[in-house]
UniProtKB/TrEMBL annotation:
Superkingdom of origin: Bacteria
Free-text remark on how the cofactor is bound: Binds 1 heme b (iron(II)-protoporphyrin IX) group per subunit.
Gene behind this protein: hemJ
Cellular component GO terms held in the UniProt record: plasma membrane
First-listed, main subcellular location of the protein, grouped into a coarse class: membrane
Compartments reported by the entry: Cell membrane
One GO process term, biological-process aspect: protoporphyrinogen IX biosynthetic process
Signal peptide bounds: none
Cofactor or coenzyme needed: heme b
This protein's UniProt keywords: Cell membrane, Heme, Iron, Membrane, Metal-binding, Oxidoreductase, Transmembrane, Transmembrane helix
HAMAP family noted in UniProt: HemJ
Source organism of the structure: Falsiroseomonas algicola
GO MF annotations, alphabetized: metal ion binding; protoporphyrinogen oxidase activity
Name this polypeptide is given: Protoporphyrinogen IX oxidase
Xref: InterPro entries: HemJ-like
Amino acid sequence: MTFDFLAPAYVWIKALHLISVIAWMAGLFYLPRLYIYHMQVAPEDVRSQTFKVMERRLLKAIMNPAMIATWIFGLLLILTPGVVDWKAGWWHLKFASVLAMSWFHHDLAQARKAFERDERPRTERGWRIMNEVPTVLMIIIVLMVIAKPF
Ligand code: HEM
């Protein structure tokens, strides 16, 4: 099956890919930060309810649709003839980092359900460490797709 029809749309698909990436990353940076603040209030505190609403809306209204859109436009780019050189090492490291980013999203979604049940998944220090994960992955991904060092 040929996907030649995607070639004229390449720049538009790439633009939509990056718009979705930005929205997804905004949530991936902010949700662990909300969890750090949420850890600092007791379950019976009224502020805990406010955090639950903020976390649910951020995940469901922004992060889930943005992740799905990033994947759809990213996969369309893969299918566009001549875009991905499968022999290049950078592509494999980008793809591994994207899988890790998706795992991180899944982990945050599981934690949101736990916070909703008034549980406290991880320690505050654990969330501070987790908070750095998307930054490191984002730096790796951008260096790979832009500099293509190997
Ligand atoms: C979710 C799965 C993803 C897939 C399948 C995917 C796939 C792709 C593909 C095939 C390209 C075109 C590469 C080229 O034109 O040389 C691309 C471009 C790009 N991707 Fe992704 N990507 C994904 C997620 C991400 C994420 C999470 C980020 C950033 C954190 C990202 C950042 C970029 C950037 C900056 C470009 C533009 C590179 C250029 O200017 O050529 N992508 N992506």
